[in-house]
Amino acid sequence: MKHEHAAVVLDFSANGIGIIRSLARRGIDVYAFDTEGPYRIGKSRLADCGICPSPLTEEEELLTFLTDFGKRFQAKPVLYAGSDDYAGFISKFRETLAGFFYFCSRATLC
Q: Which GO molecular-function terms appear in the entry (predicted)?
């Protein structure tokens, strides 16, 4: 089954890889990003993986990276955070990111 909305996962820790696996097994197109160190260790064959700026030291660069990436889609992708660092970043920039992504939350029953 093909899904209209892709998923963007931030983080290659065990949490991020678990999210990638769960979504990919359901036929969802998954794009995943993390900083260079984790990217080299934990990327997945189940997602289109890449390197992104750090949510801790390069906030503006990461925001630009994500908004530019989000513009590529006709249907907004769903943005997932696999770590506290990315969750904090998403929370801080939620208003801007909402123009390009949906968020998985209890309210949306995702």
A: pyruvate carboxylase activity
